[in-house]
Amino acid sequence: MRSIKLYDTYEGKLREFVPLEEGKVDIYYCGPTVYNYVHLGNFRPTVTFDLLTRFLRECGYKVRCVSNYTDIDDKIIKQAKVEGKSEKELSEFYIQAYEDCLNKLNILPLFAHPKASEYIDKMASFIKDLEDKGAAYQGGDDIYFRVNSDEKYGALSKQNIDDLISGARIDINTKKENPLDFALWKLTDDDGIKFDTVIGRGRPGWHTECVVMVNSVFNKPLIDIHGGGFDLKFPHHENEIAQSEAYHHTQLANYWMHVGFLLTNGVKMSKSLGNSTLAKDVLERHSGNGVRLFFLSTHYRAPVNYTEENLIAADKLSQRYLNSFKKAYYRLSLENIALEGLITEDYEEFMNALASDLNVSNAMTVLDREVKEINSLSIKKDADFTRLSSLLFTFSKLSTILGLDFHVEELSNEDKAMVKAYNEARENKDYAKSDELRPLLMEKGIL
Ligand code: AMP
Ligand code: ZN
User: Which ligand sits nearest to residue 42's alpha carbon?
Assistant: First the structure.
């Protein structure tokens, strides 16, 4: 297998990727809390882990990529009241809206898309076991995780537990033993969504939801890669690890990957800050390829600024690629030449760039170079069709690994007849006819 390096935030360095089981990779990344339309930033992890999945599959791994829906959360209860819906109706509506965006962005189907609400009994028995192990306790109306039970607490976010305690907000209303302890379960009989379970009536906390979904969907305590946006490193992922360590005596994932923020005017795009641009609106204005290229143009760990200009530029680039591909494809199609012949040097250069912690910018230089050559060959009278065919074949393969969709409709018989008539008109110096046909052929992307 190809040597792959990924940046592991737990170790704080680039590491050679070695799967737990030969030839297989299990990935989980945290998905959205579905209480309203998600903003564009929520799709940055989605696009990144979709790229990682495509790349690892191309390397020959069998990849199971999973992302969850957080459909049990106080924000959902609040919003359901505002919209006059049940929590279920509300979350299902926004899940559908999210999935429409997934389709537009050409995200591969996931191995599973678990919803927190489907794992409640498992969460309750997990929490009960944590209590039995001495890692959880009831304080007032909440069941808390005892952070002191995990001596490595803070390792992911590189924070010292004493510093964390001195910086923690002291909430006089809670019955915590330690300000860092976090809620696993809220015992409640309020009018929000709640469940009767072995630990009583109530609902789970977000940190427990994810760790239980990871364990349940993969049916094992340790997976290869766990990820999400940088904001999840602390406390969410730290708390997931702490529960896993207490419950299974193992880390939850072998590699932790965190994606940089999408910013608006230099500030993290966030629902709570009110500076969000909804993904669904962006995908109305721009193509899925354009939005994907916008994300891919910056390394996944670096921040990226959202501007309409950047999106328009990415859209234009994707249109330029598509036009070049289309024109050359039709040229070959009229000669009845199929696409074949991988250009190995280009493929290796591209794959090696991605193997270096998903260095898409370097990988894109291969595509750029190929498009330039495709353009210059396409307009040549005596083009080298074998070279053009292998360029298109390779370009198509590489762009698919990036998740770009440059699908071209086949030429119809009428189109072919029009091209024939155009060529004949030119040969016969019938310029009136060729001038009449040219714009029609250009509009179809054939010329
Ligand atoms: P949330 O619904 O806020 O829990 O977020 C769902 C996913 O989107 C998580 O992986 C977050 O880390 C990620 N996320 C939220 N805001 C941003 C942002 N501005 N840039 C990148 N990722 C984000
Ligand atoms: Zn999570």
Answer: 1
227 pocket-lining for ligand 1 (C-beta < 6 Å): no
Series of mean pLDDT values for 10-residue runs along the chain (447 residues): 96 98 98 97 98 98 98 96 96 98 98 98 98 96 94 91 75 81 96 96 97 98 98 96 97 98 96 94 98 98 97 97 94 93 98 98 98 94 94 98 94 89 91 93 86
Ligand 1 pocket residue status of 276, Cβ below 6 Å? no
Backbone angles phi, psi at 63, to 5 degrees: -105, 135
Alpha-carbon gap, residue 75 to 84, rounded angstroms: 14
> From the CB of residue 123, how many other CB atoms can be counted at a distance below 10 Å?
25
CA of 97 to the centre of ligand 1 (A): 16
Which residues fall within 8 angstroms of residue 181, CB to CB, at 6 or more apart? 139, 144, 145, 146, 147
Residue 225 and residue 267: Cα distance in Å, rounded? 28
The answer, as to whether pTM is greater than 0.90, is yes
Report the distance separating Cα 295 and Cα 260, nearest Å: 11
Distance CA 430, CA 138 (A): 89
Q: Which atom of ligand 1 is nearest to the CA of 42?
A: 8
Q: Which two tokens stand for residue 35?
A: 């209480």
The pLDDT value recorded for residue 173 is: 65
Ligand 1, residue 263: give the atom nearest the CA: 19
C-alpha dist (Å) from residue 96 to 46, 90, 130, 260, 280? 16, 10, 35, 26, 11
29, 231, 257, 272, best to mutate for ligand 1 pocket (most atoms within 8 Å of CB): 231
- Residue 200 Cβ inside 6 Å of ligand 1? The answer reads no
What is the atom index within ligand 1 of the atom nearest the CA of 260?
A: 21
How far, in Å, is the centroid of ligand 1 from the Cα of 46?
Answer: 9
Chain length of the chain: 447
Q: Which atom of ligand 1 is nearest to the CA of 34?
A: 2
Report whether 381 contacts 404 (CB < 8 A): no
Give the per-residue pLDDT at 172: 64
Q: Which of 42, 234, 265 to mutate to test the pocket of ligand 1 (most atoms within 8 A of CB)?
A: 42
Residue at 96: amino acid letter = Q
Q: Please work out whether the CB of residue 44 comes within 6 Å of at least one atom of ligand 1.
A: yes
**CA of residue 210 to ligand 2 center, whole Å:** 5
Token digits for 204? 């789970």
| DSSP notation for 50-108 | HHHHHHHHHTT-EEEEEE-BB--SHHHHHHHHHHT--HHHHHHHHHHHHHHHHHHTTPP
* Rounded-to-integer distance, Cα 280 and Cα 304, Å: 19
